[in-house]
Amino acid sequence: MALMDRVRDAGRVIGGLCDRNAELHKQIEEIRTSKAPKAVAATEQRASDLEAEATHLRSELKVDKEQNDRLQVHLKAARAEVHLAKSEMLALNQKLDEVRAEAQPASEALAD
Q1: pTM recorded for the entire structure
Q2: Which of 1, 63, 93, 104 is 20 to 30 Å apart from 48, CA to CA?
Q3: How far apart are CA 50 and CA 41, in angstroms?
Q4: By three-state DSSP, how is residue 36 classified?
């Protein structure tokens, strides 16, 4: 569950960064129209930095999703093994009860 929470959190962070990036692009266009070159350069650099961070987080998210998928497969296999083991245990318990029931008269006869 922690991995799924981490993946979900990373998705939210990426979404927030994408929204912030879009906002910065909008600000760039507004600043360009006002002809403030230093502000434009700073804003473009910040937007570029945020885009790089978003790209990095997307790659981390992809890796985490792949790991989550692999773990889900292992979990499914483990659950199947547990189910099979429980079924075998029940069958063996039934067989044990049957053998005990069959052995009870012989045990009582030996005790007499």
Answers
A1: 0.51
A2: 63
A3: 14
A4: coil
